[in-house]
Amino acid sequence: MSNLLEYPALIFGGMGSGKSWTTREIIKLKVAAGQKVTVLDPHGSPVEWKGVELITDHEDIAKYLDKYIKELNRRYEEYRNSGLSEDEFTQKLIKEGRNMSVV
Known about the structure:
Low-confidence stretches: none
Order of helices and strands: HHEEHHE
Strand order of the largest sheet: 2-1-3
Mean pLDDT: 87
Distance between the termini: 17 Å
Number of helices: 4
Strand content: 5-15%
Oligomer: single chain
Helix content: 40-55%
């Protein structure tokens, strides 16, 4: 479970297999660990996604993804220039409160 808090994950399965429930449980752990979580769900409701930033509008989702990609590119550049290993850089982001999760 600790890897799910620090690294990307892909959750897939058939309808009714528990993907949404599992995702919400992981998100609860991430929020409890002080991580910022953003959920992009055009069909989502605040009741389902408590404690996170929820974006439901298609245009707002597109804008967020554009901003997110720019931030990822900026971070990769920062990482390449940091002289740190990937794990060290990830821990640095966590310590600085700059880690983020997007669902």
